[in-house]
Write a structure and sequence with these properties.
With about 70 residues, the protein is mainly alpha-helical. Helix content is about 75%, strand content about 0%.
């Protein structure tokens, strides 16, 4: 137990990083439509599949005129 108390900054660092990760994700999901676009952009970097999703999301976000319906 003594050696663990000797190095408190080590276990403290990963804990802080873990709390920051979920917070950022929650913020992105609970943000306005403008932020969602950014979210999709980040996904696009990971894979092209996200690109299709962003397209459909943008269509849903945009108001559909009665004439086009």
């Amino acid at each position: 137990m003594e050696p663990k108390a000797d190095t408190p900054p080590s276990p403290d660092k990963p804990e802080k990083a873990h709390t920051h990760l979920p917070k950022a994700m929650k913020l992105m999901t609970h943000c306005s439509t403008e932020m969602t676009c950014r979210c999709f952009s980040i996904l696009d970097l990971q894979g092209q599949k996200a690109r299709d999703r962003s397209c459909s999301a943008e269509r849903m976000l945009q108001p559909v005129p009665a004439g086009k319906r």
